[in-house]
Amino acid sequence: MSGVSTRDRTGHRWAWCAHAFGLAVALVLAWYVVHIPVQVSDCLGNLLQARGASYSDILTSQLSASGFFRPLLWVEIKAAYDLASGHYWLTFS
Asked: At what angle are helices 55-63 and 71-84 packed, to 10 degrees?
């Protein structure tokens, strides 16, 4: 005898199914979020400011900003700009 009851195996199976379902939902949501285009008309000023600054400068300046508190938005814009490697049309369209 293995010492594991049927109830324990059933609970383990449901836990695994819940994790698999959660992962599937997270992947579907991530797929749609990744494909949301960055609107250049709304973000052109942000792109121009982020391209010349370092990550620490951006984060420091945005943590002390009084208008909007979205420091990770600027870090995300900077990361997308850096990862584009000159292929800005493919990255921001």
From this structure: 160
Helices (H), the chain: 6-34, 40-51, 55-63, 71-84, 88-92
Distance CA 55, CA 60 (A): 8
Distance CA 13, CA 21 (A): 12
CA distance 71 to 59: 6
What is the rounded CA–CA span in Å between residue 38 and residue 28? 19
How far is Cα 75 from Cα 3, in angstroms, rounded to an integer?
52
CA–CA gap between residue 62 and residue 74 (Å, rounded): 8
Question: For residue range 53-75, what is the model confidence (pLDDT) as tens digits?
Answer: 888 888 888 787 777 667 788 88
pLDDT at 90 over 90: no
Amino acid 34 reads V
Closest Cα partner for 74 from 62, 65, 92, 83? 62
